[in-house]
Design goal:
The structure holds 2 protein chains of 2 kinds. By secondary structure, chain A is an all-alpha fold. Chain A has 18 helices and no strands. By secondary structure, chain B is of the alpha+beta class. Chain B is 35% helix and 25% strand. Chain B contains 4 helices and 10 strands. In chain B, helix 1 runs antiparallel to helix 2. The longest helix of chain B has 33 residues. The C terminus of chain B is likely disordered. The chains are: A mainly alpha, B alpha+beta. At the A-B interface, helix 5, helix 10, helix 11, helix 12 and helix 13 of A face helix 1, helix 2 and strand 7 of B.
């Protein structure tokens, strides 16, 4: 067993771990322990998800039953609707997806999986979280300032966003920009920490090509973010100057160019999509081998594909701007790079499916979510081809087709990838098993309502329904699509209510869940060599790594898993 | 899937629809193959007592070929889609036919200001005619539109003609279409442009050739009228 391998030297190294009593504040609030910080990110992200989800609910109600009072909210005027659209997008991308997928899981997994006692810079880590908390607070406070919150779309296209007269929003949009800048600062610090930790603090024997894939994905995401966010920070500052200092970076009457913002925004925006997506791909890559008891198919090919996709993501931004008035000849090179980027993702998906071939598949809850991710991501990838083809884009651009598409790619990352991660690592994080029955009910409800919500969006999108309109009944050509809008709304409410099963499961499992042993899934990576939950300092003794992360059903061992840190003295038999 | 598209009434709409249809069948085939493989593997390789999973790493090229060759097929299909698409794109955006009719559309929060050149065929002259939110054209004529914005970004959308073009303030962007069927079609804004975005809507009326002549006679200023008005009307639309 793993326990015996690491347990030998436990007492000898116990002195390295400072187990002294730490005050409540140092333990739960201003903690420097990467695992506590991970939980803080997780709970902050889940809280913000409730906010973003509520905004989505109000929006969907208005679309299905325009100009009726929304239960629990009231009437939605057109100004309010634009606020809902904007703040839902901003909240979900920057304050839910990033905190949960990168903040929580990056922090929790990187030290545990590379065999380190904590992050390289624990205090910087604490600062990253609290910076994000301040950013979240500023974002939330913008709802309450005079003039209301930002309403220029999550993409904040100027000149609409650049002059208060166009929206009537004054401080709300300034605070929105400020919240972005602070969020970027937080994740820049976090990214530096991730990279430094994973590069310098790997356990003996943990070479780069023995790193679990989720670490590769987190590192690639951190690098993409570091390289892409600079232009957007500059753009954010310029936009803020346009708003409060009367400059005209993006306002044509003063000599500025609105398209400059779009270039800067999407130069960041496309890598950002992968910043959010790649960690989720990583979770799935960890879960699939464990529950099919097989090595991940093509580990190195997946790494090369990830890096290729990361590089290409800097060369595709103008595919968001085919119809922006850009020289139409530019559509061809950008269409080509866009299409090339589907190749590394195709390799990734095929590798995931090939992992199942010849396996011994157990349908535990984390596995169901991982499989759900693969299926949903296939749909999202395929619908992306409509958007990426410049002529097809003419009809589907800025319609619900796009909304459906990016919810299949991004939200499948959070819902299916994220839940795969939560159900899989919950025992390690909190020391208790989650309830399998509730987990499976949660999965099937989520799968059904997710598809019932987002698939029909493609249909109304083909029908021409524009995104960001507050009332489809104002248009004659959308009248016949209204029953589908009602169907989508009912499904979305179902999707939201299904998450109560998850909350119930978390609550119940934290209190009454079965205590988790070190390695409940019989997995091979290093985090399972620690107690559940791991103590301050993580490892009894720092592990030594002898092999890659996915040695399942290896002929070298009699059990069907061979942990990374187990020393095989001689081959048996 | 394609029946969800609004009825097409433009000359290039068919090219766009056929690309959408082509992509639909390619992606549908991939969906069936990949989801089918996924489902098949889940059934075939579900856990059974006493059976051990195969130890396959997929690192060797001979094994990796199982994922690399399908990825190569994806690439080839992608290039095919792009190649076919390039032609449709060029037809819409690059190979613009000579104009029969010209109009200027200036977007502002939250209207389309539509300016016809008047009898002299020139913009910026006193006989220009401005009608908000109503675009009248003749069937089978090539209509060229100069798009401008007075304030924020708008997007000129004609769902039935497969025409969508963002309008960036500070620039003049050109679009064109040739309608194939008389009727009245909606002309919404498809880029968030402020609180009145939802409901920012004009109408395109495609007249038959005779009806169009009649509409011109009834609405456009006649030659004589223009000369008397020319001094009074100081406003010009460039």
């Amino acid at each position: 067993m793993t326990d015996s391998a690491t347990g030998v030297a436990a007492s000898a190294h116990a002195t390295q771990v400072h187990h002294g009593e730490i005050s409540f504040w140092r333990t739960y609030i201003f903690s420097t322990d990467h695992k506590m910080i991970a939980k803080q990110y997780l709970f902050l992200g889940l809280f913000m998800a409730l906010v973003g989800g509520f905004l989505a609910y109000v929006m969907r109600w208005q679309l299905a039953f325009p100009d009726t009072a929304v239960p629990g909210f009231g009437f939605v005027g057109p100004e309010t609707y634009n606020v809902l659209v904007t703040m839902h997008g901003t909240t979900m991308v920057f304050f839910v997806a990033m905190p949960i997928l990168l903040g929580a899981f990056g922090n929790f997994l990187i030290p545990l999986m590379i065999g380190a006692r904590d992050m390289a810079f624990p205090r910087l880590n604490m600062l990253s979280f609290w910076t994000l908390a301040v950013g979240s607070l500023i974002l939330l406070s913008s709802f309450f300032v005079p003039g209301g919150a930002a309403s220029a779309g999550w993409t904040g296209y100027p000149p609409l966003s650049a002059r208060p007269i166009y929206t009537g929003v004054t401080w709300g949009l300034n605070l929105w920009l400020l919240a972005h800048a602070i969020e970027f600062a937080s994740f820049l610090m976090g990214g530096v920490n991730f990279l430094t930790t994973a590069i310098t603090m790997r356990a003996p024997g943990m070479t780069f090509f023995r790193l679990p894939l989720v670490i590769w994905q987190q590192l690639t995401a951190a690098i993409l973010f570091l390289l892409s966010v600079g232009p957007l920070i500059a753009a954010t500052v310029m936009l803020l100057m346009d708003r409060i200092a009367g400059t005209s970076f993006f306002v044509p009457s003063g000599g500025g160019d609105p398209l400059l913002w779009q270039h800067l925004f999407w130069f960041f925006g496309h890598p950002e999509v992968y910043v959010v997506l790649l960690p989720a791909v990583g979770f799935v890559a960890e879960v699939l081998p464990v529950f099919s008891r097989k090595p991940l198919f093509g580990y190195r090919w997946i790494i090369y594909s990830t890096i290729t996709a990361g590089i290409l993501s800097f060369m595709v931004w103008a595919h968001h701007m085919f119809l922006s008035g850009l020289d139409p000849r530019l559509a061809m090179p950008f269409s080509l790079t866009t299409i090339l980027i589907s190749v590394p993702f195709a390799i990734l998906v095929f590798a995931m499916i090939a992992t199942l071939w010849g396996g011994s598949i157990q349908f535990a809850t984390p596995m169901l979510y991982a499989l759900g991710f693969v299926a949903m991501f296939i749909v999202g990838g395929l619908t992306g081809i409509f958007n990426g083809s410049a002529p097809a884009n003419i009809q589907v651009h800025a319609t619900y087709f796009v909304v459906g598409h990016f919810h299949y790619t991004l939200l499948s990352g959070i819902f299916f990838g994220g839940f795969a991660g939560i159900y899989f690592w919950f025992p390690k994080m909190f020391g208790r098993m989650m309830n399998e029955r509730l987990g499976k009910i949660h999965f099937w409800l989520t799968l059904i309502f997710f598809n019932a919500t987002f698939f029909p969006m493609h249909l109304v999108g083909l029908g021409g329904m524009m995104r960001r309109i507050a009332n489809p009944l104002q248009y004659e050509f959308l009248q016949s699509l209204q029953p589908i809008n009602v169907f989508i709304t009912i499904s979305a409410i179902g999707l939201a209510l299904s998450q109560l099963v998850f909350l119930l499961n978390v609550g119940w499992s934290l209190v009454a869940g079965r205590k988790a042993e070190r390695n409940p899934w019989q997995a091979t990576t290093l985090e399972w060599a620690t107690p559940s939950p791991p103590p301050h300092g993580n490892f009894d003794a720092l592990p030594v790594v002898y092999r890659g992360p996915y040695e399942y059903s290896s002929p070298e061992a009699s059990e069907d898993w061979l942990p990374q840190d187990r020393l095989l003295v001689a081959r048996s038999g | 899937m394609l029946r969800w598209l609004p009825e097409n009434v433009s000359t290039y709409g068919g090219d766009i629809d056929s690309i959408i249809g082509f992509i639909y069948y390619v992606t549908l085939a991939w969906f069936v193959v990949t989801i089918g493989a996924l489902a098949l593997f889940l059934i075939l390789y579900r856990r059974r007592e006493g059976r051990r999973a195969a130890y396959i790493t997929g690192e060797k090229l001979s094994e990796a070929a199982w994922i690399l060759i399908p990825a190569l097929i994806v690439l080839l299909l992608d290039l095919w889609i792009d190649f076919r698409g390039a032609d449709a794109w060029a037809k819409v955006k690059l190979r613009v036919p000579p104009a029969d009719l010209r109009v200027q559309v200036t977007a502002k929060q939250f209207n389309w200001e539509i300016v016809y050149p008047g009898p002299d065929g020139q913009f910026g002259t006193p006989d220009d005619l401005q009608i908000d939110n109503e675009l009248h054209v003749s069937v089978n004529k090539v209509v060229r539109i100069a798009l401008r914005s007075k304030d924020v970004i708008h997007s000129f959308f004609l769902p039935n003609l497969r025409l969508k073009q963002d309008i960036i303030p500070g620039r003049e962007i050109h679009a064109w279409f040739q309608a194939t069927k008389p009727g009245v079609y909606e002309m919404p804004c498809s880029e968030l442009c402020g609180f009145g975005h939802s409901g920012m809507l004009g109408h395109l009326t495609v007249h038959s050739a005779e009806e169009y002549q009649q509409w011109v006679r009834e609405h456009w200023p006649s030659e004589e009228k223009t000369s008397t008005q020319s001094l009074a009307k100081g406003d010009n639309h460039r």
